[in-house]
């Protein structure tokens, strides 16, 4: 007598795009864009079934000064995911990876984020002149 598999179809885990993986991708993009002058650090924490990720811009030449840009939280099901833009105080809720990417683009290309990056780049330049 053979046993029947009663489990549901399990998705291909390699095709699942999580908020944390998208944050890590953007961290690499910032490092590449600034030739390592600015880095992005993804700080993660977990409490029970809630996962939280913070995206911080880090400046190695300024004693690793960091500025938090956003915070993401979600439960085990991943979506919906809430993204809090630290500078504006606005919260975005994403029901899918496409929506998450859209909201992430909004935050990372916002005027507030651009001002932070410009200011940090100027500080790096000034520190190099000293």
Tell me what you see in this structure.
The chain is an alpha+beta fold and 130 residues long. The protein contains three helices and five strands. It has a five-stranded antiparallel β-sheet with strand order 1-2-3-4-5. It has one domain (18-129). The protein starts with 18 loop residues before the first helix and ends with a helix. The chain is elongated, with a radius of gyration of 18 Å. The mean pLDDT is 93.
Task: Give me some keywords for this one.
130 residues; alpha+beta; five-stranded antiparallel sheet
What's a concise summary of this model?
With about 130 residues, the protein is of the alpha+beta class. The protein has helices spanning about 20-35, 95-110, 110-130; strands at about 40-45, 50-60, 65-75, 80-85, 90-95. It has one domain (about 20-130).
């Amino acid at each position: 007598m053979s046993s029947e598999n009663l489990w549901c179809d399990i998705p291909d885990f390699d095709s699942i795009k999580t908020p944390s993986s998208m944050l890590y991708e953007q961290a690499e993009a910032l490092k590449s864009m600034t030739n390592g002058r600015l880095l992005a650090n993804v700080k993660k924490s977990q409490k029970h079934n809630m996962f939280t990720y913070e995206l911080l811009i880090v400046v190695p030449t300024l004693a690793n000064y960091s500025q938090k840009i956003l915070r993401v939280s979600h439960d085990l099901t991943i979506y919906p995911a809430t993204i809090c833009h630290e500078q504006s105080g606005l919260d975005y809720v994403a029901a899918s990876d496409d929506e998450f990417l859209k909201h992430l683009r909004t935050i990372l290309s916002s005027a507030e984020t651009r001002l932070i990056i410009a200011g940090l780049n100027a500080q790096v330049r000034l520190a190099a002149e000293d």
